Amino acid sequence: MAKAQFTNGQIISMVAVFLLGTTILISPGQNLGKYAYLSILLAFGLFLLMLGFYYLLANLEPKKSIFALNEMAFGKILGTLINIFYLIYFFVLTVLVVANFVNFINTTILIRTPDMVTSSLLVAVVAYSVRAGLKPLAELSVLVLILTAVTVVSVTLMITEIFNLAHFLPLIPSDWNAILDNTFTVFAFPFGELIIFLGFLGVLGKPDKVFKNVSKGSFLALIMMLLVVFRNTLVLGDFLPMTTYPSFETARLINIAQVITRAEVFIALNFIFNGFIKASITFYSLCRGLKETFRLKSYKHLVLPIGALVALNAHLSFPTIIQNIYFNVEFYRYYAIIPQVILVLLTYLVLLFKKRSAAK
Amino acid sequence: MNYLFVLVVFTLLFLMDFKELQQANLNEKIVYGILLLAALTYAMFFEARFTTNSIVTVIARIVGLIRGISLPPQFY
């Protein structure tokens, strides 16, 4: 079977859609209100630094995934243990994406539908797409990115009449500690989650090409993220931290001559598509990780049992949206920092040391 | 009735994978068996109200323990 080739556009789209996945609805740094953009910019700076390390790590052994690199760096036993830690993180991330999706559907659209039904249906679709491989997902993500960009821009244009620039005043924040604290949260979600791509880097192509496109995709995601945050702040102002889904609430206020109203459905559709792509990419990376760690020929027959575990965990994770937000703010970042930063740096340093000692 | 439903769902999942499993090696069959049995057991425990924990809850508990945060009872 010929190896799938990924175009630059497909990699850029996948990265952008992955980063925008849940953030299109749940604004990063939302509790900072009008200063959320500052924490997003700072977190993006941190992310670029980490992306540099990811690039250096990938360049040490091109075409190898993070799982293979861990085994090379730490040996078979410790490497497998670290890989299992990564697999748990990838599993948790898939569960969180599905849980966010289920929370949103059950809070705003299908209020009386049991969440088990929503999560099972989503996971079934995601599992089906993961069995088909990464190529169809990459092709779909181009379309989803265009759809997302059109929605973000058109919703922003439709709501300009109620923009209030005074919502940004005072321009200079008084509490920089809160901003720095939030930077940590915004880095962990969504920027640091891009570590998922290290799970199947070899599939996408050479590190040079991939990382060039990953940077382009993340810049594109940053621009759209900032556009969403600025729009929501200009419309909602001080109410921004009090809303659960600011983009959804903003789009609800669109009213053009009593004809164009209820535009929030576009935001919901956007989230559904982006969430689907994000869940599929995390699920795919998890399956590939299992394949590499346990040296299997194929991952395809693992998809359904893992899917069942994801659906059950997503159902039990957050009975309400408040638990979801509480988890993201108080717990997630402390857990995610281990695979996103600490272990990656450790793997890079050990591999670098081993390479240099071998060269001497 | 609910337990029967869970069993039927997991049997269907198994039957969907059966063709591919026949071509799989022992290693693959073992990993598949562990995952399917884990999912089935978890589903049964969930149905019996024996567990309300998920992996996310477990992580929250561990991080909470390390950070010295006691989770509010209405949360978990």
Architecture overview:
The complex is a heterodimer of chains A (360) and B (76). Chain A is an all-alpha fold. Chain A has helices at 8-20, 36-60, 66-109, 115-132, 134-158, 176-188, 201-204, 207-236, 246-252, 264-293, 303-317, 321-359. Chain A is built from 12 helices and no strands. In chain A, helix 4 (115-132) crosses helix 10. The longest helix of chain A is centred in the first third of the chain and has 44 residues, at 66-109. The radius of gyration of chain A is 20 Å and the shape is globular. By secondary structure, chain B is mainly α. Chain B has helices at 2-23, 26-47, 55-67. In chain B, helix 1 (2-23) runs antiparallel to helix 2 (26-47). The longest helix of chain B has 22 residues, at 2-23. Chain B is elongated. The model of chain B has no long low-confidence stretch (mean pLDDT 85). Classes of the chains: A mainly alpha (360), B mainly alpha (76).
Q: Bin the helical content of chain A.
A: over 70%
Number of strands of chain B: 0
| Oligomer type | heterodimer
- Report strand % of chain A: under 5%
Termini separation of chain A: 41 Å
* Helix and strand pattern of chain B: HHH
What is Rg of chain B? 17 Å
How widely separated are the two ends of chain B? 28 Å
Strand content of chain B: under 5%
The average pLDDT of chain A is 89
Number of helices of chain B: 3
Largest sheet of chain A: none
Q: What's the helix count of chain A? A: 12
